[in-house]
Amino acid sequence: MASAVATSPTEALVRYMDASRYVTYSTYCLLIYDHLLTFADELNLVWQSRSLNLVKVLFIFNRYAVPVMLAVDVAVLSGGLPSTTLRRMCKGWTIFDVVIELASLSSTTCITAMRVRNLWADRQDVDRFLNFVWVLQFLASVGMVMNYVAKNARTFSYEPNFNICFATVHQAWVIWVPAMVFHAIVFIAMITKVLSTPRREDCPL
């Protein structure tokens, strides 16, 4: 008869930290790899144009500010930064990181909304509806993030045993719900437009 193996809180924490590190390192490598694959397209489609508009600003922000922020996150998570540096920066950096993540999420949903609104350029009611939904999810996300920071900021601290920034966070997944709902609505709007657009018999979907 198999017996359950008791796991101490420290052992569980180490396993969670290792899993978090592996996921972070692998996804960051995929991000950089994607940047390298699409850099030629970026040169042709973004930097060749001298005009500056909202979409271009949002793209550049997500393209370069986010990887830099994530690079610092990787350094913090790896435990490779000096302990004196981590002690000073933990709380402030964690809050700043959350704010930047919110800005990144909001900017990507904004670009997505613009793209789908262009598909429905002939329908002002759809355009207004998508604008309303984006503003609604943005306000909901900001409110949830502010509530999250207010409730958990006191737990953002330096963990000397592992030389990392640490926080006790509960129910953090709900922060992503507004954006998930927004993307579901946008996806439905996009598919509806595709299916309602006339096309020739020899033209694939």
UniProtKB/TrEMBL annotation:
Domain DUF6533, residue spans: 22-67
Alphabetized Pfam families for the sequence: DUF6533
Keyword Transmembrane helix: yes
Assigned keywords, A-Z: Membrane, Transmembrane, Transmembrane helix
Residue spans crossing the bilayer: 22-40, 61-81, 129-150, 170-191
Keyword Ubl conjugation (UniProt): no
Name this protein carries in UniProt: DUF6533 domain-containing protein
Organism: Hydnum rufescens UP504
